[in-house]
Amino acid sequence: MKTIGITGGVGSGKSEILYYIRGHYPCEIVLADDLAKELQEPGALCYTALVELLGADVVGEDGRIRKAAMADKIFGNSALLEKINALIHPAVVAEILRRRDLAEKNEKIKLFFVEAALLIENGFDKICDEMWYIYAEEGIRRARLKASRGYSEEKITAIMEKQLPESIFRKTCQVVIDNSASLPESIRQIDQVLEAYQWQK
């Protein structure tokens, strides 16, 4: 089984790429950002420690941590953010490795994908055999974000400025999928890479 990291800038189309892969290849896909949220749910690994860090007032009537309250506590408090990251990140990595071990025991699974916007920044590349960069031209990414999420130009610019430059993505990743054009063209590139590994669709 091969572990592949999927990353790329906001609006690059990582979700649609993974949707295709999930439907056509023997794989398991873990979304690191979704996993981090799962670990913050009541009864999950990070919940109690997070409440202790943030204070009981962040807990809503349903017992869940209120995201808005959490964001308010973190805003402008870099020390607290650092503590939260130090709590959640290792837990996410440990859970990814646990799921990878389980997947490896399943003979039907040949590919294990890990997707995260901050895959490189958070060091997920260290647990992957190979890294894929989902690329799309900036103008296309902006148009997608306006259409799908209703983001303003200002918000898109602010998000993009916080992300890694294209040069770092290309330097770190072994495979580049250009998702600027049509989905069939992106699929052609994906099939070309995966079929070269002699895995069948």
Your description of this structure?
The chain has 9 helices and 5 strands. It has helices spanning 14-24, 32-38, 47-54, 67-74, 78-104, 138-149, 153-162, 166-172, 183-196; strands at 2-7, 27-31, 111-115, 130-135, 175-178. The mean pLDDT is 92. The two termini are 15 Å apart. Helix content is 52%, strand content 13%. The chain folds into 2 domains: 1-26 and 111-194, P-loop containing nucleotide triphosphate hydrolases (Rossmann fold, 3-Layer(aba) Sandwich), CATH 3.40.50.300; 35-109, no CATH class. It has 201 residues and is an alpha/beta fold. It has a 5-stranded parallel sheet, with helices on both faces.
What descriptors fit this protein?
201 residues; single chain; Rossmann fold; 52% helix; globular; five-stranded parallel sheet; alpha/beta; 13% strand
